[in-house]
Every structure is written in C-alpha cells, then in structure tokens.
C-alpha cells in the first residue's frame, strides 16, 4: 500500500509540474503585452518599461518560469499586476463563493431535475409529463446569460422580491446570502436540472417496467413504496454517476452566472484576469484548479485501491 | 375653453418632457438634483464600468480609478464646471517667475490628511518627488518638465522647471497633483495603494478586488459639513445591461456609462434620473503613416499602401464619412460629431474648430483620382471586438464604399489591438482618448514626431514646432492661436481623423441629489446624498 501511495503521489507531482508548464507558457502564447493591457490608453513607454522590469516581464521566458515556480514552491503565488493584491489571498476569498454557488445549484438541479423526472415517469402520457419535458427542453436550450437577465427583470426589478446582484458571506448575513444566491443557483442549476430530469425519467421508466417492481406490486406494496422505495432507489445509481461527472462542469459553468449576478467568484476572477492579461492571477487560478483536480483524482484512486485491492496489485505488477 | 385646454395640454407635455429629459446645465456638466434637500446619512453604491487598478495616485492608470480618487484623494488643483483650473489644496494659482522656469504654490492652511496629520509643503514635496522617481510611476512623463521641488516654508512649495511649461496647473489638477500622507507613505512605501490615505471627503475602509471598494465619511476633512453620506461603495459591474438592471432594481444608486441605446429607457423610468455631461476626449481613426518598427525611440519609416503614402487618400477617406449619420445610426444622435482633438468648450478652442469638412463623396472621388490610386482602395480597419465597435465599423465600411474604399474590418480584443498598433501591425485603427483639460494632453503625445502615443508615426517639423511652442507659451491669446494652427495642420495631414466626441451619461436613482459630473466624465459625490 505504501509503495502504491508513493507511486501515485509521484505521478501526481509530475502531472502538477506539467500543468505549471502548460499554464505558464499557454498564457504567454496569447497575444497582448500585460504591461500594455494594464496601461490601457495611458501608454507611457518609460513607465511601461519600468512596469515590465518591476514584474520581471522583460526577462527571458525560462527565467520568468523558474522564478515563478520557485516562488510557488515557497507558497507564494505573487501579486496581481493590476491591483497589487496578493494572489493567494484573492483566490482563497473566491473559492468558497464559487463552491457555495455550485453546491446550491446542485441542490436546485437535484430537487427540480429528479422530482420532475420521477413525476414524468410515473405519470407517463399525461399533461404533467408534457410539462416536465417542456421545462427540460427550455432548461437545455435557454442561454444562461439570457435566463439570468430575465430572472433579474422579473424578481428584482418588477416584483422587487430579491436583490439583482452581489454577494454577502453566509457567516455575516445568512438571510442576505440566501436571497442573493437564489437566482444565480436557479440559473446555474437549470441546465443540469434538465439533464437530470431526462436521465431520471428514462432510468425510472426502465425500473418501473422491471421484474422486481412487478414483484413488489404483487406483494401488495403501495404505489408510493414501489416508486420511492424500489424504482427511484435503483434509478439513483445513474443519477449519482452523473452528479459526480457534472460537478466540475458546474464550477466552470459558474463563470457566466458570476458575471451576470456580479458574484466575486473564481470564474469571474479568471475571466477578468484574462482580459487584463494579469498573468499572476491567471497562473494562480489555473494552478490551484489543476492541483484540486489532481488531488481529487489521487484521492479517488486511493479510495478505489482500498475498496478493491486488485487495483494496487495490478499497478505493482506493471 | 377648448383653446385653454389645448394650452394646458401643451404646457403639461412640455413639463412632462422636461421631467423625463436629462438633467444637465445645458452645457458640459450635469447635476443630480434629487428633487429636494439632501439629508445626512446613508450609503451610496456607485457602479463603475470596470475594476479600478491600484489605488495609488503614483501608479494608477485607469479612468475608473480616477473616479474613486475623486472621493479619496484631493489635488493641488481641480477643474470647475466651465473647465477652469481652480485651487483645491493650493490656496491660489501657481505664481510663475518672469522666465517661466519656477512656479511657487501657496498651500491652504489647516488642512489635515485622513489620518489627522497636517498637510504641509514637505508633504507636497514628498508626493511630487515620489511621482517623479518611484519605479513604475505613471506620472513621470506628466512631470517630465519638473526638475526639482523645494520647500520654501511650511505653506509654500517651489517647483523648478527645465523649461516653461504651460500645462503645469492642469497636470496638478489630476493624479500628479494628489498629495499622499507622509506617515502612510513611510509605513507602506510602494504598497500605499493597499490602504491609501490622502486629504479627501471620504477615507478608505476596504477593498475586495473585482467586488467593491468601501469608503466612509472622513472626520478629518476640512469641509466635512458639506459631506452628507456615511458610506460610499464603488462596485465594478462591467456589463452595461447588468449595470442598468442593478440600477433599476435599486441595488445600486448610481451607474456609470449608460450607453446611448439605453438613454431613452432611463429617461422614461420615473424612478431614475439621467445626468449628462460633455467629454474632454474624442474618438476617431488613426492611420499608419510611418509605423514600421514600433513607437519612438524606434525610427519612423514608410508604411505600405496608398493610405500611408498619400495624404489625399486619407483626406478622401475623411470626406467619405458622414459624421452626423454615424452619430445617428450608432449612437442615436446622442454624441457630438467633431473634427478636432479638443472640445469646443475648452478655453483654448476657437470658432474654427466647429468647421468640419463635410460629407462629400464627389470630393473624395476627385481626391482619389488626383492621387492616381487604383480603386477600390483596400483598407483594413482594426476595431475592438465589442458589439458597438462592430456597428461603428460596419457604418464606416458602407459609407467609405461609396467613395471607392473597400474596408475590411478586423475586430480585435483591445489588449491585442494595442499590442499590434503600437508595433505598427495595422493600417487604420478606430480608437479614442478620454481627454485632458489642457489641450497639450490631447495633442502632443499623439502628434509630436517623438510622441509616446504617436502610433501613426506621422512626422512633420512644422507641427512639432507649433506643439512645442504652444506647450511653453503662457500667454493665453498666443496659445489659443497656436492651437488653432496646430489643429489646422493635423487636419491637413490627416494621420488622425476625428469623428465624434462622447457625452457622459450617468444614471442615478431619483432620490439622489448633490451629485455632479463635469466634462472630465468623473462622478463627483462629495456633496451627494439622499433627498428626503
């Protein structure tokens, strides 16, 4: 087990180093000088040269890479070129915001998607199934930017029930936080809810036609017990697999939602940093994301090997 | 009776239109009246069109940053509604020596920074020296003419100049004239922007990058009785639709940069008011005339193509464009057509500035024929990649086609476009400038042969001489004449054609009063507040 752990950790480290190379050189392959992007219309050549020197942007690219990697190894992700604020501090303040948004969207997707899927399967051929299918079609086809603006128009401007934008921490104002997260969660969760609805519906239809459900009914169980205790339980395996696969996509999908609802999350940080060529921020965000994925994969591999010893043995044999 | 009814209806309609219309002085500044007396207290949230950069007057570069500084850091001089330079932290205009090489500035007494330390001549010297010498300072070129700063006495500074420099007071009416607290500078050094302390109606509380900048009323401010708000929050909301939606929902109370297409909607909304002001800048098209190796100090060359080679082709391009139609089609007629780098309201502007070459397709064709170029003349026009820039590009494309130009549009992300055009990899670029109070700020960097932003690399000794003389002449009448000559000369060479001047449209909640916007497009909230 120790050797397996060491091998996998080593592989992860190599992947992380490769990720730093891709991130660092990838962003520099984009056209646009960061000093110039920062300067905007005020492009004094002397000041530009000094800014380049200050941030080491005038150094050969390999020297820049080595400096960055050395600083990262010491836990220093640098400072934003635009604001001068520490990159680690900025990222740490953004991660919980996007995670909260992703989790609430997941909740929205499960409640609406699974609920509608079950109803559509149980009431097959009725108007409720038609309605659920229509909702799913809309969820899949309506662009989230447009949906966001429409929800703001209805719930914030016309009805005035909810704030149009912004974010407050749940620790300082739990109610205010929920009020501000309702609309973004609905927007981000809508598409996933539609996918979940379709998957749940087809899995439920399959389950409801299976032999064990017929047996359950023959045993005299109530329809509620048959649907929720047997058919849905079995269908949830498909749904759970989908949930795992989509969580990462929800986080990346948060970029547009964060823009529309002016939420200071991870996605918005990245987008605005790309526009201003704020290299330290882009590098920091990409590195942290890569590290999170690599770490999650490592954790899953380790869990698999604990659950199924053949995996680590196979690995050792090769 | 019927007649009276009609008059009453007409009067009501006029009143209604007035109520719906923009709030302004009819000139270049606007005020949010708020419909009553401004009360003390409350938090005003102002949405900016972008996230400001460093809150350090020495290192700051952005227009939105200047918006925040308006509430945070006062300057030696400011502008008034009529664009006159007026003392702010200084007690009077600079007193120039007979040779124009030294300027003495008397400071106001009893002024305190927001950390309660006193403002004196030593503090002014410290800030000016920092602006001139700090590595990465964006103020160096603005203060290039300053060779030294001396403390004469606690309330007087002397600025030594390497040559007479007419725009000095105007330069000190922007970030170069902001005075920072020496105590905070000693404490934070180059990181002053993390917790800036200046003289201002509001003091810095916190900043969450891309989310908010929070300020609160300063108790040290010399005019604190005029400050009504308790708190001020600046919130960057980049997308104009979302900015407007937030204004309508009441989440923000002031929205920067309302687009012309949204102006009628704001005017119709009874819960909102529109504050209108002019602008100091311009928008136009810059042609690559001699930029083959980049900006100065790289040598200028000769760019390829008929546009670069013959000014008649560029003049023909200008004649093919109808500025009024462009303004109506793209901006609902809400901006101002122009053909000059400085606005008509500038104290140095002359009547001649309003005489633009008209839309003249026949004249354009004749110029092309005289130049002996083969039509259609191929033109690649670089624009930024926004929907508005696309509309501008398409309108220009269709107008120029009539005269014999085949315009290909190259929408490019702004950072990349700047990179390309600085390096000379372009033919024509639709770009503008936010503008400065003194004409020199709108002209010299763009038209001097060695100008830092002369991306055209057009070079002409006569133009250089005129610009340099205007810069060093302190006699107003003479300067005015010199700028008239400069503008005539740059119009003639047509390396830049000026097309329109933006107007500043600011949206505000109906109950916001005491908010001012001048032609520098900055939102001034010192006296702003909520009406009862």
What do these coordinates show?
The complex is a heterodimer of chains A (318) and B (532). Chain A has 318 residues and is mainly alpha-helical. In chain A, helix 1 (2-29) packs antiparallel against helix 12 and helix 12 packs across helix 13 (309-317). Helix content of chain A is 79%, strand content 0%. Chain B is of the alpha+beta class. Helix content of chain B is 32%, strand content 22%. In chain B, the strands form 6 sheets. Chain B has a 7-stranded mixed sheet, with helices on both faces. The longest helix of chain B has 19 residues, at 2-20. Chain B is globular and about 70 Å long. The relative contact order of chain B is 0.17. At the A-B interface, helix 2, helix 3, helix 7 and helix 11 of A face helix 6 and helix 13 of B.
Short description:
The complex is a heterodimer of chains A (318) and B (532). With 318 residues, chain A is mainly α.
Mean pLDDT of chain B, nearest integer?
90
**Most extensive interface between two protein chains, with residue counts:** A-B, 48 and 48 residues
Helix content of chain B: 25-40%
Strand order, biggest sheet of chain B?
10-11-12-3-13-21-14
- Give the helix/strand class of chain A: mainly alpha
The end-to-end distance of chain A, rounded to whole angstroms, is 15 Å
Give the low-confidence spans of chain A: none
Count of helix runs of chain B: 16
What's the β-strand tally of chain A?
0
Q: Sketch the topology of chain A as an H/E string, one letter per element.
A: HHHHHHHHHHHHH
Distance between the termini of chain B: 39 Å
| Shape category of chain B | globular
Helical segment tally of chain A? Answer: 13
Structural class of chain B, by secondary structure, is: alpha+beta
User: How much helical structure, as a percent, in the residues of chain A?
Assistant: over 70%
């Amino acid at each position: 087990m120790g050797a397996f752990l060491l091998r996998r950790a080593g592989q992860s480290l190599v992947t992380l180093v490769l990720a730093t190379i891709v991130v660092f050189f990838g962003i520099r392959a984009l056209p646009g000088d960061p000093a110039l992007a920062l300067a905007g219309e005020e492009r004094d050549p002397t000041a530009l040269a000094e800014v380049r020197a200050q941030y080491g942007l005038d150094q050969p690219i390999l020297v820049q890479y080595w400096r960055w990697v050395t600083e990262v190894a010491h836990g220093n992700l640098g400072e934003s070129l635009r604001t001068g604020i520490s990159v680690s501090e900025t990222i740490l303040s953004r991660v919980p915001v996007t995670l909260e948004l992703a989790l609430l969207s997941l909740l929205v997707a499960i409640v609406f998607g699974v609920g509608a899927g079950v109803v559509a399967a149980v009431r097959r051929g009725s108007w409720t199934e038609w309605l659920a299918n229509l909702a799913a079609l809309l969820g899949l086809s309506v662009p989230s930017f447009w949906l966001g603006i429409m929800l703001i128009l209805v719930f914030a401007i016309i009805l005035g029930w909810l704030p149009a934008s912004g974010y407050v921490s749940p620790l300082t104002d739990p109610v205010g936080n929920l009020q501000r997260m309702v609309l973004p969660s609905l927007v981000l969760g809508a598409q996933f809810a539609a996918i979940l609805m379709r998957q749940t519906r087809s899995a439920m239809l399959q389950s409801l036609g299976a032999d064990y459900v017929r047996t359950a009914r023959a045993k005299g169980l109530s329809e509620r017990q048959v649907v929720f205790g047997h058919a849905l339980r079995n269908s949830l395996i498909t749904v759970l697999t989908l949930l795992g696969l989509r969580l990462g996509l929800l986080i990346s999908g948060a970029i547009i939602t964060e823009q529309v609802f002016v939420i200071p999350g991870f996605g918005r940080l990245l987008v605005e940093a790309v526009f201003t060529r704020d290299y330290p921020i882009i590098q920091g965000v990409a590195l942290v994301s890569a590290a999170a994925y690599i770490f999650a994969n490592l954790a899953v591999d380790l869990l698999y090997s604990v659950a199924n010893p053949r995996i680590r043995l196979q690995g050792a044999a090769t | 009776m019927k007649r009276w009814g009609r008059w009453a209806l007409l009067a009501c309609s006029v009143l209604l239109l007035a109520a719906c219309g923009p709030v302004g002085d009819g000139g270049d500044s606007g005020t949010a009246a708020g419909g009553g007396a401004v009360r003390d207290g409350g938090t005003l949230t102002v949405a900016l069109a972008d996230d400001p950069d460093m809150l350090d007057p020495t290192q700051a570069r952005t227009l939105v940053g200047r918006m925040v500084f308006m509430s945070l850091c006062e300057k030696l001089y400011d502008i008034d509604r009529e664009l006159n330079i007026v003392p702010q932290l200084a007690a009077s205009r600079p007193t120039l020596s007979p040779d124009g090489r030294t300027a003495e500035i008397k400071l106001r007494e009893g002024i305190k920074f927001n950390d309660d330390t006193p403002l004196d001549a030593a503090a002014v010297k410290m800030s000016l020296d920092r602006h001139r010498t700090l590595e990465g300072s964006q103020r160096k070129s603005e203060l290039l003419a300053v060779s030294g700063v001396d403390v004469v006495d606690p309330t007087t500074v002397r600025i030594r100049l390497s040559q007479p420099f007419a725009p000095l007071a105007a330069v000190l009416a922007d970030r170069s004239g902001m005075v920072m607290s020496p105590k905070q500078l000693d404490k934070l050094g180059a990181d002053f922007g993390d917790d800036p302390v200046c003289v201002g109606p509001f003091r810095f509380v916190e900043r969450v990058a891309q989310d908010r900048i929070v300020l609160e009323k300063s108790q040290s401010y010399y005019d604190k009785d005029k400050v009504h708000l308790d708190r001020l929050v600046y919130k960057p909301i980049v997308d104009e639709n979302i900015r407007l939606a937030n204004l309508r929902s009441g989440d923000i109370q002031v929205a920067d940069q309302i687009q012309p297409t949204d102006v009628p909607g704001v005017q119709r909304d009874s819960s909102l008011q529109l504050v209108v002001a002019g602008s100091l800048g311009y928008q136009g098209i810059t042609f690559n005339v001699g930029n083959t190796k980049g900006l100065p100090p790289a040598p200028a060359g000769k760019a390829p193509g008929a546009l670069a080679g013959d000014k008649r082709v560029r003049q023909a391009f200008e004649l093919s464009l109808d500025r009024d139609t462009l303004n109506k089609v793209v901006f609902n007629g809400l901006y101002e057509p122009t053909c000059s780098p400085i606005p008509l309201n500038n104290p140095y502007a002359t009547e001649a500035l309003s005489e633009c070459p008209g839309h003249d397709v026949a004249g354009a064709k004749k110029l092309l024929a005289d130049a002996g170029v083969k039509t259609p003349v191929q033109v690649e026009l670089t624009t930024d990649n926004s929907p508005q820039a696309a509309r501008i590009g398409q309108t220009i494309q269709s107008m120029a086609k009539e005269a014999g130009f085949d315009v290909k549009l190259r929408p490019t992300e702004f950072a990349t476009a700047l990179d390309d055009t600085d390096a000379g990899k372009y033919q024509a670029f639709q770009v503008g400038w936010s503008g400065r109070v003194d004409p020199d700020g709108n002209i010299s960097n763009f038209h001097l042969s060695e100008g830092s932003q002369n991306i055209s690399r057009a070079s002409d000794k006569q133009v250089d001489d005129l610009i340099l003389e205007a810069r060093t002449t302190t006699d107003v009448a003479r300067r005015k004449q010199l700028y008239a000559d400069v503008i005539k000369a740059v119009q003639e060479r047509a390396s830049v054609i000026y097309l329109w001047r933006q107007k500043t449209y600011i949206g505000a909640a109906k109950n916001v009063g005491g908010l001012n916007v001048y032609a520098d497009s900055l939102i001034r909230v010192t006296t702003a507040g909520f009406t009862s």
